[in-house]
Design a protein that fits this description.
alpha/beta; 318 residues; globular; 7-stranded parallel β-sheet; 36% helix; 3-stranded mixed β-sheet
Length: 318
């Protein structure tokens, strides 16, 4: 297959690109390197990389016209600065529209989109959250510019009539991940800085388990519409921290500080993967501790210069 991946130098996009290339497919990557890394894409005879923003329709059309993809994985997203609503809107909404227009013009047979589980807000009406749960991305439900614009992009995809699958994701982790608590824990623990954990629980999905579903979708499995990719279990942030300590072989002199969650934070966000389990004949295979160990080994080898926690950029040295 010929598969175009937006955000293909990012965590999910580049991991997927590697697996598709290993399977003999041709891959075209677009990335502006705002949160992706150049070293995530290794030179390969079947790989083409274009530096640019999907918010620029000329860049998008150039890529589609040159490559003529059969399928598209839309992994690009702006989330680096929660106050930069303009950038989020340009990338997550206008960029998505540019991708849709080009995909329809080239008769792309399937478009795969990655949506954040923040689309349900931080005060879910049910646990686990099912696919029938209302979408809440506004301020009254702990929303953000990222959640609002990602949800708008998802709705434009549905409006377009194109064949699509939108995967609403749990917290993905693993090698190349630079967002969330795990890379922050690594960065601080390896530079002798203090850490704390929040008294919350989250649903974590290992990257290889995630891409296994996406590859099935690229091969035609699954029906048009929405799915969750999640473990179906929630873990405390303290468990994540303890597994990080174990992977680093670090013993603290005193237990890590556990801070109570804020009034706008929810104790757990757990999304129901049962439809995905059934339609894709899929289940999670990677234990949390094993996945964290793999991530830590990658951090040791490649280093971390910047992490993104709760959608806010945090310098690795502070």
């Amino acid at each position: 297959m010929k598969i175009l991946i937006t955000g293909g130098a990012g965590f999910i996009g580049s991991t997927l690109a590697d697996e598709l290339l290993d399977a003999g497919h041709h891959v075209f990557v677009i990335d502006n390197y705002q949160t992706g890394r150049r070293d995530n894409n290794k030179s390969h005879p079947n790989l083409t990389v274009l530096e640019g923003s999907i918010a620029d329709s000329t860049t998008v059309n150039k890529a589609f016209d040159a490559f003529k993809p059969e399928k598209v994985v839309h992994a690009a997203a702006a989330y680096k600065d929660p106050e930069n609503w303009e950038e989020d809107t340009l990338t997550n909404i206008m960029g998505t529209i540019n991708i849709i227009r080009a995909a329809k013009r080239h008769n792309v047979s399937r478009l795969i989109y990655f949506q954040t589980s923040l689309c349900y807000g931080l005060k879910p009406l049910e646990q686990p959250i099912t696919l029938t749960h209302p979408l809440y991305s506004g301020k009254s439900n702990g929303g953000s510019s990222y959640a609002i614009t990602k949800t708008a992009g998802e709705q434009f995809i549905e409006l377009s009539g194109i064949d699509f699958i939108s995967f609403r994701l749990a917290n993905a982790y693993g090698p190349r991940n630079l967002s969330g608590p795990l890379p922050t824990f690594f960065s601080r623990l390896t530079t002798n800085k203090a850490c704390f954990v929040m008294d919350t629980r989250r649903d974590f999905i290992y990257i290889k388990d995630l891409t296994a579903v996406v590859i099935k979708a690229l091969n035609g499995i699954g029906s048009k519409g929405y799915y969750h990719i999640s473990s179906g279990s929630d873990y405390s942030i303290k468990e994540l921290f303890d597994s990080t300590l174990k992977a680093l072989n670090i013993k603290l002199e005193k237990d890590v500080e556990v801070r109570p969650r804020g009034e706008d934070d929810v104790y757990t966000i757990l999304i129901d993967p049962s439809k995905t389990n059934k339609d894709f004949d899929w289940k999670v295979n990677t234990p949390l501790e094993s996945g964290i160990k793999n991530a830590i080994e990658w951090y040791k080898t490649h280093g971390i210069t910047q992490t993104f926690t709760h959608l806010k950029a945090v310098s690795g040295g502070k």
